[in-house]
Amino acid sequence: MAGTWIEVDLDAIIGNYHEVIKRLRPGARCMAVVKADAYGLGAIEVARALERDGCEAFAVTRVEEGLILREHGIKGLILVLGPTSQEEWPGAIAAQLQLTLSELSSIAELNEVCAEKEQHLPQQVQVHLKLETGMGRTGFQFSEMEVLAVALAKAPHLQVVGVYTHFARAAQRDRNYTSGQYERFTTLTAQLEELGIRPTWKHVCNSAAFLDYPEWHHDFVRIGTLLIGHYPGPGFREKLTLSDPWVAKSQIVHLREVPKGTNVGYQSIYRTKAITQLAVLPVGYADGFGLAPHFMPQGWIDFLKIVFKNLAALFGIYLGQEQVELNGRRVRVAGKIGMQLTVIEVGMQECALGDEVRIPLRRTGANPRIPRQYKQAGQMVSERIMKEGVLAAYTECSLQGET
């Protein structure tokens, strides 16, 4: 993947973190969500930078993500948000990860694993209870509260330190639905307290709810998308100022002048309209370029946009063609994006082999094998290279006296 890389500005992430913590209610802390390799930025490097700056808690989806953080020196609280399996528990307990309980059957089994002294594990594991209030995914429901309390009373090796839920529509500003979820959460936690289950911490706010409902900050807010410079939606931009830490770049590896009427790419859907230059970039949809998640239309206007765009394509008119930035100017992708090579039409502007091109690569869709270069105070401080999905090389230069 020579010629394509991603630059991550750690100062921007820290700046976003400070934008969050200065808006926290007294007593609340930020739990940095670094799942999915910190949304593609690199969980190890992002967590290290945040922990150096005082962040004390992190959240991931899977046990393996938490273990990677521990193996690379992250000492703070690490909560695994997703369901876990019995095979993963010994490693998670040994690494002092905090686990989420969301189904009754796992309580007795997890307690038994902790009780097996021959495994040389800590004799207690800290857990958080996930309550289902309207996400429709995982969590204990209202009808299970009494059975849950009984099961926990029979599990002395489980220390319930947290209880939480997850909002389904906070980013859509659907206040009625979100308020209904919160009311169900308070009802469920009150019932648990009556049954003798009194967790130390409560947390409900994701990035959107953190901004819209400061009265719900409780003990932690779980922040991911704000840290990486994304707003939950356009209506949140006036609430705080974020910096984008992510720049994806590629280099021109082939350049030639072509005559008017030159066909470009698969199916020849693109034809040059004048004498021009075509440049080739070593990046394509295998790297995540041009890929986008499938979104459901949010109303008739969205639906009509989708229909119109596809109707235009039927007649050879391609709307929303991907663009890249070369020497400060936007240029179009010529034809279809290839698997690993993409052609751009640069016109007759002066450019050369090796020139850098900024490409609009989605963070979570970027191939993990693309090298990440980490910068702080304008200097490259570390680089990570992935091969075959496994960490193959990780070098860290001196950073403020640390190695």
Q: What does this protein structure show overall?
A:
By secondary structure, this protein is of the alpha/beta class. The chain has two domains: 24-239, Alanine racemase (TIM Barrel, Alpha-Beta Barrel), CATH 3.20.20.10; 247-359, Lyase, Ornithine Decarboxylase, Chain A, domain 1, CATH 2.40.37. Helix content is 26%, strand content 26%. It has ten helices and 21 strands. The strands form three sheets. The protein has an eleven-stranded mixed beta sheet with strand order 11-14-17-16-15-18-10-1-19-20-21. The radius of gyration is 25 Å and the shape is elongated. The model is unreliable at 387-403 (pLDDT under 50).
Q: Helices, strands, pairings?
A:
Elements lengths: L3 E6 H12 L7 E5 L1 H5 L3 H10 L4 E4 L2 H9 L5 E4 L8 H6 L3 E4 L3 H11 L9 E6 L14 H9 L4 E7 L10 H20 L6 E3 L3 H6 L7 E4 L22 E6 L2 E5 L4 E2 L5 E2 L4 E6 L18 H15 L8 E4 L2 E5 L8 E6 L8 E4 L12 E5 L2 E9 L2 E7 L7
Parallel strand pairs: 1-19, 2-3, 2-9, 3-4, 4-5, 5-6, 6-7, 7-8
Antiparallel strand pairs: 1-10, 10-18, 11-14, 12-13, 14-17, 15-16, 15-18, 16-17, 19-20, 20-21
How helix-rich are the residues, as a percent range? Answer: 25-40%
Major beta sheet, specifics?
11 strands, mixed
First-residue to last-residue Cα separation? 28 Å
Number of domains: 2
Question: Please, what is the CATH homologous superfamily of the largest domain?
Answer: Alanine racemase
CATH class of the largest domain: Alpha Beta
Taking strands numbered 1, 2, ... along the chain, how are they ordered across the largest sheet? 11-14-17-16-15-18-10-1-19-20-21
Overall shape: elongated
Mean pLDDT: 89
Evaluate the radius of gyration: 25 Å
Query: Stretches where pLDDT falls below 50 for ≥5 residues?
Result: 387-403
CATH-defined architecture of the largest domain: Alpha-Beta Barrel
**What's the CATH topology name of the largest domain?**
TIM Barrel
Proportion of β residues? 25-35%
Number of helices: 10
Structural class designation: alpha/beta
Total beta strand runs = 21
